[in-house]
Amino acid sequence: MERDARFAGTAKLLLALAVGLMVFKAILPQGMIRPPEWLVLPFADWINVVFSFLQNDLGLMAVTRAFSAVVEWLLNVTANLLYGKSRWPNLGPIPWSVIAVTAFMAGYALKGWRLGLISGGTFVWIALMGQWKWAMETLSVIVVAAPFSVILGLVLAVLAWRSPRFERVLNPILSIAQSLPHFAYMIPVVVFIGVGPKAGAIVTIIFSVPPMIRMTLLGLKKVPEEVIEAAKMSGATRWQLLTRARIPTARSEILIGVNQVIMQCLAMVVLASFIGMPGLGQKLLQLLQSLKIGLSVEIGITIILLAVTLDRLTKAWALRQPMHEAASPSWITRNRLLLIWLTLCAIGFGLAHVFPYFLEVERRQALSVAGPVDALMDHLIRLITPVTLWLRWFLITWVLIPMRDAYLWLPFTAVLVLLAALGWAIGGLRSALICVAYFGLIAASGWWDRAMITVYMVCISVLIAAILAIPLALWGARNPERAGRILLICDTAQTFPSFIYLIPVIMLFGVNDVAVVAAVVVFAAVPLVRYTIEGLRNVPPEMIEAANMSGATQAQLLWHVRLPLALPTMLVGANQSVMFSLFMVIIAAFIGTQDLGQEMQRALSSTDVGKGLVLGFAVAFMGLLTDHLITRWSETRKRALGI
Amino acid sequence: MTESVISCHNVSKIFGPNPAQHLANLKADPSLTQAGYVHAVREVNLEIRRGEMLVVMGLSGSGKSTLVRCLSRLIEITGGTVTVEGRDIATLSEPDLIDLRRRKMGMVFQSFGLLPHRSVLENVAFPLEMRGQDRATRYSRAREMLELVGLKGREDYFPRELSGGQQQRVGIARSLAVEPDIWFLDEPFSALDPLIRREMQDEFLRLKGMMNKTIVFITHDFDEALRLADRIAIMKDGRIEQCDTPDKIVLHPATDYVAKFTSEIDRARVVHIGSLVRPLTAPPSGEPVPAHRTIRDLARQLISDPRVEIPVINAQGAVIGSVLRQAALDVLLGDAQ
Questions:
Q1: What CATH number does the domain containing B329 carry?
Q2: CA–CA distance, A569 with A579 (Å, rounded to integer)
Q3: N or C: which end of chain B has fewer CB within 10 A?
Q4: pLDDT tens-digit profile of A294-327?
């Protein structure tokens, strides 16, 4: 308590200093308003020197070339099997009907009819809509990249688990890696590998490893001590202990890791269209750039269906608990699903042989909903244009531009002192120093104005998201069934690759800042709703009963019991929300913003590794700063509540 | 006296950043307490004899679970020596230690420690699999063990599909699959409901009667200890307060702490006639009583018997001495000492 009071005192002092800097901006020297020349360090040049050393003098190029050759060979095999690219083994393409029944059987075996229909139906939709080749181009990369990531993640996690020192090194790297925006990964890959499917696969592998490491490590640590002791007492060697006790017992966490890898792969592979990765992402990018709404809706639906299918299938696999089967001596009954699958595949191959329609749906035979969707959209847009126009005008004139100008008006010293005050209030000297260090580095990178635009976009989006999300969550949490439904929607929405969110906003608002903010708001609202509901739902019932018996009204119950207890969980949601909006703001750059994202796009097209990474780190530091502050705050709250 | 299978000499276990240093400091200043260090086991000396059942009893945090893990080297001890069948286990290489566990030791755990992804049969066969036995042999042995613990027909179930009592039966079957000479049980029944616990204790006594093993049994339940033990070691703060037969512990508690435990106990149920025997002062007269019965068993007779001194016979029927009726009645009525 005494400590807290001292924190508050210093924090107030710092806050007063920050306000002072703002009030007396007029008389401040220029060097305190914007980072002076001598402070801006040529990080980009340094990184470029390091990279050119790695690339040319150290011969790392040869290593990456060799690795990419392996990846390319595998990509060719899957490309041949999935869409008939003429490469070894020259067996493909597998008829779409066979892949669809396989997906159906996988869903049926893992969960039941409904999942079977969702996953089988996804592939039927893709085939009938004539998008087979694009979807398979996308999938072929996932099929190659995901196993690489999983194996890499497993090995690194086991190493980290064996050696605490390695874990200490790995942890901060993972934190930074998970807060680097997608584009920051692409630039070095373009330098080392080039563009195209190969580069897409490799950037996907790199991008999706961190969650696998995290989940595996978590799983390995969660294995009950007694299981390990039992295995040791059974005389297991270290290798047996790892392969037969630890890893199988950590199965669920590891498979959740696999699920996250696959979802990250899908998100990245769609974005990798920016570095020439063909497939659904590229198609979507082209269609969006030429504002063909109907066709991009079709592709968007495909991507969403794929995301839902992949997510549900892997989650069902992860959550499946072993069940004993009724003892049955006959081989046929024990393997009936396998037999049904083989029969269906045979039928599929047969049909494809006789009717080419079941092998590949030709473009002219394909169905399309683009026409009706376009017509519907035209109609809808005409109907709501007055509203969206007004909203656009209102937001731009009265909210966005004033906010942006305010952020840009702030002297950078005031921002730093303000952050120090915030850090001090939440976590004392250490947090204050961390805050100042992160933003000090951003100031020293020379991208202050751009960074402030990113900060303003994230702030305004998260604010709007919170204004929308928290009342929705409060309303949702009042009824368990409704809460369940909303959570399901949120879970599903979280699996969509971020790119998808751009389709409807471009449709409604066109290409401008409002569209970006709208996309980010939707994307950022999802975790807020989800964690608020979860926090409210997990308030122990005996506390609510105790409050009810003390005669609390509904409002008192909410303010004094449920919200304070839910706050730590809600903060987790806020943290994710900020992360998501940072990523989204950067992605949305290609529909026109003037922030770090736009510069990153430029760095990508000129393959400027140094600039790209500096910008990437600037974004990562914003994320890490938020993460640090929110985690500290939530920990303090939790300790205070004794949770 | 039979040979000892496990013997502990001055065994200490300290948890902390630098346990060896802390132990050395403690030698210089025994009353030292230092933040960050937990002295779980202190200077324990213990001989466990072949074929006996030793129950280690203590409240939670008394170091009993740590002690049993020292005996099997699941954790490394900080000071002292543990020898198993004459070999100092701290000096064993990893393959030797694994071999010792594969051939000699079995262990049952409080929360069962079953592998969740394996069926009951595969769990029981696990130690045999570790030894590299082929599938057919290990499954037939595992089936045998499951039948022994009364789980026939549940071979293909998974641990989470069984009740707690059934899961512990699997744990017992697994620990017995390799026919160990030494059987460690770490609070095997503590996680079970009282009724199931009683049932499992009976089951355990049945199994124990069928085989001749050296057993180390950990419990925090004094009644359980009295019911099962040949000898009881009572632990407090990492030290063994007393290690003796149940009769002696009840009749002659070594410390106040032990006395407090025994005060609530119905001694007549624990104390055997045999432990009150004294040499005959006169030739035996009348019907003798067997030494292995408890005083409670013979309460009716003791109350109505007119004799001052009752002769006692051993299991073979030979007279080994006599018991004073008054002494037995004192125990029965709770007036002893």
A1: 3.10.580.10
A2: 16
A3: N
A4: 888 889 999 999 999 999 999 999 988 888 777 6
Chain B residues within an 8 Å CB radius of A229 = 69, 74, 107, 109, 113
Residue B262 sits at the chain A interface (C-beta within 8 Å): no
Contact in structure between B297 and B274 (CB atoms under 8 Å) = no
Under an 8 A CB cutoff, do B119 and A235 touch? no
From A246's Cα to the closest Cα of chain B, the distance in A is: 9
Q: Which of A188, A242, A237, A213 is closest to A48 using CA atoms?
A: A188
Output the domain CATH number for residue B158: 3.40.50.300
Query: Nearest residue of A to residue B161 by CA position?
Result: A323
CA distance B100 to B86: 12
Domains: count for chain B: 2
Question: Does the beta carbon of B180 lie under 8 angstroms from any beta carbon of chain A?
Answer: no
Concatenating the DSSP letter of every residue in A437-506 gives HHHHHHHHTT-HHHHHHHHHHHHHHHHHHHHHHHHHHHHHHTSHHHHHHHHHHHHHHHHS-GGGGHHHHH
Q: Is B226 left (phi over 0), alpha (psi -120 to 50) or beta?
A: alpha
Give pLDDT tens digits for A454-473: 999 999 999 999 999 999 99
Asked if residue A328 has pLDDT above 90, the reply is no
Query: Do B200 and B302 belong to one domain?
Result: no
Q: Tokens standing for B256?
A: 């106040």
Nearest Cα of chain B lies from the Cα of A242 at a distance, in angstroms, of: 12
- Per-residue pLDDT band at A1 (split at 50, 70, 90): very low
Q: Which two tokens stand for residue A385?
A: 């244009």
pLDDT single digits (tens) A68-116: 899 999 999 999 998 888 877 888 788 899 999 999 999 999 999 999 9
* Dihedral of alpha carbons A123, A124, A127, A130, sign: negative
The b-or-e profile of A451-463 (16+ CB within 10 A means b, else e) is bbbbbbbbebbbe
Coil/strand/helix, residue A275: helix
User: Domain range spanning residue B278?
Assistant: 268-333
Residues B228 and B241 in one domain: yes
**Residues B55 and B161 reside in one and the same domain:** yes
Average pLDDT of the residues in A352-357: 84
Indicate if the pLDDT at residue B98 is higher than 80: yes
How are strands ordered across the β-sheet holding B309-313?
B289-290, B309-313, B319-324
Beta strands in A571-628 (DSSP E): none
Alpha carbon of B226: minimum distance to chain A alpha carbons (Å): 26
Same domain, B302 and B283: yes
Which residues lie below 8 Å from residue A285, measured CB to CB, with a gap of 6+? A273, A274
Using alpha carbons, select from A502, A113, A560 the residue that is nearest to residue A299: A502
Euclidean distance between CA atoms B66 and A489, whole angstroms: 49
